[in-house]
Amino acid sequence: MTKREAVAQGSVEEEQGMDMTGTAEGRRESHRTKRLRIMHIVNSGFGRNFSGQTHYLFSLLSGWKDEDVVLDIWGSSVRPLNIGSGSTDYKLASQLWSPGRKSSSGMDKLRGYIRQFLFLATHARSFDMAHFHSPGWGSLLSPLLLHLLGKKAVFTSSLYGSDNPTAVKAAKRGRLAVRFLRGFDGIVALSPLLAEDFRAFGSKNVACLPNFLALPSLERGRDAGVREKLRTELGIPLDAVVLLFVGAVIKRKGIDLLAESFARLAQGHSDLWLIAVGPNGRKEVTHHEEELVRAVNDRLDTACASRRVIWTGTVRDKNALVQYYSAADVFVLPTRAEGLANVLIEASAAGLPIVATDLPGITDVPVADGETGFLVPVDDVDGLTQAIERLVTDSTLRTKMGQAARIRSKQFGFEDYHRGLKTFYRKVAGLSL
Questions:
Q1: Which of 244, 274, 327, 398 could bridge across to 230 with cysteines, CB 3.0–4.6 Å?
Q2: Using one digit for the tens of pLDDT, what is the confidence trace for 176-194?
Q3: Which fold has domain 35-212+414-429?
Q4: What angle do CA 314, 312, 274 make, to 5 degrees?
């Protein structure tokens, strides 16, 4: 019998009631110790694109050790960010979606929904609760089937303006979609603003759980030796001031705003460099914004600043990603929309002062304005440039804010997140906490 079969068999035995006393107290004890099996359901693009969700889920599953709540993941094979070296594919438990060509035709989507529903029905004995991470119709309709099968369904909301009720309602067929969104038995919201929106729309069991630090090695702080080695390899002077951006090179992340600020500052600060970690080509990300990337590079060329900008492309190896944090002095994320960016937690743990967009109820969770960095209005290039320059020209301020950021990052530990998520699952399942 395989380990997976043994776990499933053990769960079936618990469900059948192994309490031999037959007493009310015995039944309550069995109820308290029932093992919950949670199946994370991921979409067809999971793992093939640079994604904070991919990073988070693999970190969650690799770090989760709990006899009462068992986590698993179902979908197509993916290339992980934090399991092993990142150079080999991690094969998931089952092949639900074909990793072949992507199609957006209505018939293909319908076939995808049917495959998903058949999968849920066929493997219903393998899990107690399904956890969804995409607001597509396949996810929205799944609770109807799961409830008929006696299962629970929960949903994680990760991007304000996309998968929260207000945004969903504003989209095509939005009123209907919101009705189905209320069908989930529980909601995990990454930030207070997301949680507030779900509660206002009448969702039940809403838990605000900001993500945890998915790069635990950053808890040791930046490595001076790694900093010197990587800068030498990249051709960056050891005394240069290095800005770091981590994220997809897309408009939502504000890479155009960062390029404009860097172009302005580079003319007066010859020691200023920028490292941009993230996909910037069609081969790396399906939603590549070619015109934006071209405009960004043209602006940098015009300012004669291109030679001091390093585009790394996608970095899947967690150890390599940690090295970039060690090589930097200031972290910048002028994003236009987020749920709660994992990279802000990572940058804080690395002891980097942060300049980010002020998204109340979102970015102010990991970043304390004026204490661990600066928060500037959305699309405010002047404010972004001024905030970055304050840190570029004041090494004492960089150190002070970086130290405060490390202290603040302690509230995003894995143990606290584990405890909060476990409590959420058991509450949704109606089990004793």
A1: 327
A2: 999 999 999 999 999 999 9
A3: Rossmann fold (3.40.50)
A4: 130
